[in-house]
Specification:
Blueprint (H helix, E strand, L loop, with lengths): L1 H48 L2 E12 L6 E7 L2 E6 L6 E5 L6 E6 L6 E7 L2 E6 L4 E6 L5 E6 L7 E3 L4 E4 L4 E5 L6 E6 L1 E2 L2 E2 L3 E7 L2 E6 L4 E5 L6 E6 L6 H4 L5 E7 L4 E6 L4 E8 L1
Parallel strand pairs: 1-19
Antiparallel strand pairs: 1-22, 2-3, 3-4, 4-5, 6-7, 7-8, 8-9, 10-11, 11-12, 12-13, 14-15, 16-17, 17-18, 18-19, 20-21, 21-22
């Protein structure tokens, strides 16, 4: 009996020690897991919140047609191409980037309100606001070739070399096939983790998307893979008070890869600016 009692007591002690050891490891493991979780959360939070602030460095000013209600702007093969809006006034233009002179111009059908513009190969694709039509033009003659259909409004458009990226004034960028114009994906635009809407005219540059904001003088640089805004570019004060009379919002971004410069302007603006974005 004594041996049995001792054996039972010893077993209980061993069991108690084992339980204590297990509890110690469990508590330590939980603490490390929670610590790791919070550290990872803080890292992700920091990554979400990091948005670099840039400003516009003006290199030169170029005359701009004050009657142009600028909706889309792009640089290609030594020329600027501009699409303008408003019913009965919408146009597609080829401009001399040195002087702003209109070299070629074609009128868009009066029932269409012209919007964003992109170049794919030897063609230009021009969006319309509410007609749910995109018009394909020959880049040399500026003659209309065909139309594509899409659902909803059209605002901004750019081509990244593989896909078209389109905005509709919301917080969504839509990806489209450059040949069929069919939707192939989308991403939500976020600024510091929060949805950012009013995304307007677009310019694709080196894997990023630069976007005008409707009714705002900031330009955003967006990572199209995640939708996260990586940079904010302050474009306030480009026009003097006198020059601003009768104008509308900042709109129009074109990138010249040869000079590594941007062209920016606005609706009914008297000037276009060749600029760089700097800290």
């Amino acid at each position: 009996m004594r041996n049995l009692y001792k054996e039972t007591t010893s077993r209980k002690k061993r069991d108690t020690v084992f339980l204590i050891v297990v509890l110690v490891f469990f508590v330590k493991g939980t603490s490390l897991l929670l610590s790791s979780h919070f550290e990872m959360g803080n890292v992700l939070k920091e990554q979400i919140n990091v948005v670099r602030n840039l400003r516009v460095d003006v290199l030169r000013e170029i005359p701009h047609d004050r009657s142009a209600f600028t909706q889309g702007l792009l640089w290609a093969d030594g020329h600027l191409y501009e699409s303008t809006g408003r019913y009965g006034e919408s146009t597609l233009r080829r401009l001399d980037p040195e002087t702003g002179f209109i070299q070629e111009r074609t009128n868009i059908p009066t029932n269409f309100f012209g919007e964003g513009l992109a170049k794919v190969g030897q063609n230009l694709i021009l969006l319309t606001w509410k007609a749910e039509r995109a018009i394909l033009y020959d880049v040399n003659s500026l003659k209309a070739l065909r139309t594509f259909r899409y659902d909803g409004e059209g605002w901004g458009l750019c081509y990244d070399g593989a896909r078209l990226i389109m905005s509709n004034g919301s917080d969504t960028l839509t990806f489209r096939d450059p040949t069929s114009f069919q939707e192939i994906g989308s991403v939500q635009v976020t600024l510091r983790g929060m949805p950012r809407d009013n995304i307007n005219e677009l310019e694709c540059v080196d894997g990023a998307v630069y976007a005008n904001l409707w009714d705002d003088d900031y330009i955003l640089r967006i990572d199209p893979d995640t939708g996260s805004v990586t940079h904010q570019i302050d474009s306030h004060g480009l026009l003097s008070r006198e020059e601003s009379r009768g104008t509308d919002v900042l709109n129009g971004i074109a990138y010249n890869p040869q000079a590594d410069t941007f062209y920016i302007t606005g609706k009914w603006w008297p000037k276009m600016f060749e600029v760089r974005f700097i800290e």
